[in-house]
Amino acid sequence: MPRNTMNHTINNIRPASVLIEVGKRKKPMEFFAQQLVNGIALGSVYALSAIGYSLVYAVLELINFTHGTMYMVGAYLFLIFVSMCSMPYWLSFILAVLLTGTLGYCIEKFTLRPIRKKKLPNFMMLICTMGVSILIQNIMLLFLGSQTRLYPTLFDGRNVAIFGANISYIQIFVVIMAIILMLLMTVFIKKSKAGMAMRATAQNSDAAELMGINVDRVVGLTFFAGAALATISGIFSCMIFRSINLSSGVVIGNKTFAATVLGGIGELKGAVLGGILIGIIETFTAGYISSNLRDIAAFIVLIIVLIVRPRGLLGKPVQKKV
Amino acid sequence: MSMLLEIKGLNTFYGNLHALWDIDISVKEGNIVTLIGSNGAGKSTLLKSISGTVRPRSGEIIFDGRSIIGKPASYIVKEGITLSPEGRQIFPRMSVEENLRMGAYTHKGKDYSSLFDRVFSLFPILKERFGQQAGTLSGGEQQMLAIGRALMSSPRLLMLDEPSLGLSPLLTETIFQLITEIKQQGVTILLIEQNAYMALSVADYSYVLENGRISMEGKGSDLLEDEKVISSYLGGV
């Protein structure tokens, strides 16, 4: 395991596109299975990110541009803790999640809450998140540089062959962790008092306030959860790709947006479905058409869905009775 | 009996708009007090000022001997004042049970059964609809849910903003019967109502609001016979 990866960039890493080139020499069925496995692994990472995105949207009706940035900040923090501070993985993971969550909380408290309190239009918060994320990205660029770095991974990149598809241990690990986290989030949102308060605030924040719910605290908690999920997603996906680059935060932010809207924004199940679909669409486009198109595919599907079914696959129409 | 709620010289603004002018109101413990007045007279603003969702600019609000003016809404619910807002404002994509649980958000402890029982004894229909999504209830059932939800916080002062809005005359009568029943359980009630006749007949004491000022006050039965009230609010019958 390389420990001091912060100090040099790596040329001999195998990005995902190389994996796919290798895959092309396989038989059709095996190739298909390989794409599917890669797609599900990538998709479960997107799904985690999309849940956080969707939570924030549900509570504030806000397109949160800091989400992709939180993904980057969290993933880099993990890298810094592991390679510069030589901390164990589990501790680096927990610290990165907590610190980034706190950053998300602070962004809400110090930049968005004042806008909310003055009852200014919602788009101002959106522009504010754009500004904050540009600021953070440039601070990171200043200190970390723009080069691609090798990212620590688990299980030394070992893999197993099932039905001719090479499944790496890290992919299996990530999918299992993602499923556990999604189940935990679902239970939290459905059953816990804080989760119920989140849903109540999302459905009617004025009424939630009248119940004695501290709406500011709920919104803060939601931002914490959103940033924490973005971090987990960021660490896992960098572990799969074994590399990290500052610009991928922006791309991930956009793809998470695509996944959330595809599944139905504000719906937890929708975020999971949308994330996995975007992951599969992306790897299949890369595998069967061209890896240059992989980033475009998600958005083409998004545009089609928005034309055919604007509320997304699992989105519910707004229900109001007067 | 002593005064549970006392408001003195309350002024509330929306930006530059002076919505409430030097309001003085007292609510006796165990009474039903009603506020009547036309649209835009400031009735809802007054209840929002008390519940902490709108910040008054000046004046005093004393609840049970303690000043609560300018305190956040969550604090005021804990003090024992709950507002059931205009237009019901239930949580449409939560079940009836979850709506009621949210009403008891400030309740300490895990045992909700006595709170549920009290609501079910007043509104048996909510027991039947326990697991149903609140958005699918009828208008009358939603109103009952809104009042039931407010009662879940065990308030000493229950404020109701237009509980008969959009309901049939028959249902309106049912709701008002239930309101007097809630009063008999010892809850003090401050009520806003468009249906002035109904409001005055259940009220122990009433205030008439006009353009943000109190223009008249008196016992409900006295106001029902007042000529000015009859011509302005009771259709001149």
CATH fold group of chain A: ABC transporter involved in vitamin B12 uptake, BtuC
| Number of continuous helical runs of chain A | 12
Number of domains of chain B: 1
Number of helix segments of chain B? 10
The tally of strands of chain A reads: 4
Main sheet strand line-up of chain B: 6-7-8-3-9-10
Most extensive interface, chain pair and sizes: A-B, 21 and 30 residues
Quaternary state reads heterodimer
CATH architecture of chain A: Orthogonal Bundle
CATH class of chain B: Alpha Beta
Mean pLDDT of chain A: 84
Major sheet size, sense and barrel closure of chain A: 2 strands, antiparallel
Termini of chain B, distance in Å?
Answer: 35 Å
Spatial ordering of strands, largest sheet of chain A: 1-4
What's the CATH class label of chain A?
Mainly Alpha
Which key terms come to mind for this protein?
heterodimer, A: 322 residues, mainly alpha, ABC transporter involved in vitamin B12 uptake, BtuC, two-stranded antiparallel ribbon, two-stranded antiparallel sheet, globular, disordered N terminus, B: 237 residues, alpha/beta, Rossmann fold, 6-stranded mixed sheet, 4-stranded antiparallel sheet, 37% helix, 27% strand
Q: Could you explain how this protein is built, in words?
A:
The complex is a heterodimer of chains A (about 325) and B (about 240). Chain A is mainly alpha-helical. Chain A has one domain (about 15-310): ABC transporter involved in vitamin B12 uptake, BtuC (Orthogonal Bundle). Chain A contains twelve helices and four strands. A two-stranded antiparallel sheet of chain A has the order 1-4. In chain A, helix 7 crosses helix 9 and helix 10 packs across helix 11. The N and C termini of chain A lie far apart (about 60 Å). Chain B has one domain: P-loop containing nucleotide triphosphate hydrolases (Rossmann fold). Helices cover about 35% and strands about 25% of the residues of chain B. Chain B contains ten helices and ten strands. Chain B has helices spanning about 45-50, 75-80, 95-105, 115-120, 125-130, 140-150, 170-185, 195-200, 220-225, 225-235, and strands at about 5-15, 15-30, 30-35, 60-65, 65, 80-85, 155-160, 190, 205-210, 215-220. Chain B has a six-stranded mixed sheet, sandwiched between helices. A four-stranded antiparallel sheet of chain B has the order 2-1-4-5, with helices on one face. In chain B, a hairpin with a 2-residue loop joins strand 4 (about 60-65) and strand 5. The N and C termini of chain B lie far apart (about 35 Å). The model of chain B has no long low-confidence stretch (mean pLDDT about 90). Classes of the chains: A mainly alpha (about 325), B alpha/beta (about 240). The interface of A and B includes residues 193, 196, 200, 207 and 322 of A.
